[in-house]
Amino acid sequence: MRTTPQLASERLHSFRPRCLLEALPFVALNCMTDVVFVDTNILVYAHDADAGVKRERAIEKLRALWKADTGRLSVQVLQEFYVNVTRKLTTRVARSTAREVVDTYGAWVREPTTAETVLRATDIADLAQISFWDALIVAAAEQTGAAWLFSEDLNDGQSIAGIKVVNPLLVA
Fold it and tell me: What mean pLDDT do residues 10-24 have?
């Protein structure tokens, strides 16, 4: 089993959450068992040296997911992460560091993206009126059995395909 990853240029501090989403009072979940799927933007913020408070919040939530062993993501998220942090950030992450992050978070990929996942995403895109790429995230989250989707791109509080969207970067 992998240990909690070291975020770019930072040592992780001890973090013992009582509840994964304790800062979000409207959320009632079993903190020990509910799976949380993480969208690319949350992972990127955690490694963006210029993201300020958003970085701190993203790091905090990712730490909690590591501690609870409830974090999930897809290969799509890892691909998007690598491109964004090595090419699009003002302060870019070194490729070697980005590769280490991809390797570490690879432990959260529990289901392959299949043709069925893609077809389900097309249905979700039509039903929820969201982009195909966002729908592919939702389809992957659904495939992993996630109850929650951490994302800044989708509407906080929205439920798509039975998965509740939470923006963990918002102030409670």
Answer: 36
Token readout for 122 is 């097309």
Domain covering 36-166 assigned CATH 3.40.50.1010 in the classification: yes
> Is residue 109 within 8 Å of residue 73, measured between CB atoms?
yes
pLDDT above 90 for 62 = yes
Cα angle, residue 142 at apex, residues 30 and 48 outer, rounded to 5°? 80
By DSSP bridging, strand 71-72 and strand 36-38 are parallel
How many Cβ atoms sit within 10 Å of the Cβ of residue 111? 15
Question: Amino acid identity of 172?
Answer: A
What is the domain partition of the chain in residue ranges?
36-166
Question: Which residue, among 51, 50, 65, has the nearest Cα to 12 in the 3D structure?
Answer: 65
Confidence of residue 95 (pLDDT cuts 50, 70, 90): very high
C-beta of residue 162 within 8 angstroms of C-beta of residue 120: no
Number of Cβ within a 10 Å radius of residue 110: 13
